[in-house]
Model the fold of this input.
Amino acid sequence: MKKILIIGSGGSGKSTLARKLGKKLEIDVYHLDALFWRPNWEGVPKDEQRKVQNELVKKEEWIIDGNYGGTIDIRLKAADAVILLDIHRTICVFRAFKRMLRYRNKTRPDMAEGCKERFDLDFFKWIWNYPKTKRPEILKKLKQLSTEKKIIVLKSPKEVQQFIVEIH
Done:
């Protein structure tokens, strides 16, 4: 595994897993949230997102975390491994809330500078609805991928921890 994509709901642990894998495998990590937000939560236009991702995936090795459904096909096509964190929504909501409290009015490590953590009801609704609104499309895309790609679905924090221990 040299080109690893990590996807899943907000609060599922994508950035944490990306950091841990990056350190263990000695592969550079790219957090899409840090690349696609400007100060004060101004989003980067889709054409710029595509350009950045097309350049990133040309690298020999990478770990990229983030969903960004409108451009996910770029990463899915280039990845040799896709890790889906299919964590229950109650855990994701709890983690996102805990993260919001921890970093309130500060920029978290995997976010663009100037995007201070705050309560965002729409984000929590997105997490809660993720299993019905986003997950089915992601599972469909994963089924359509080449059999040459490694697809890993981790369904609990315990499975994620076990994966980290066993990866080499």
User: Anything to note?
Assistant: The chain has one domain: 3-166.
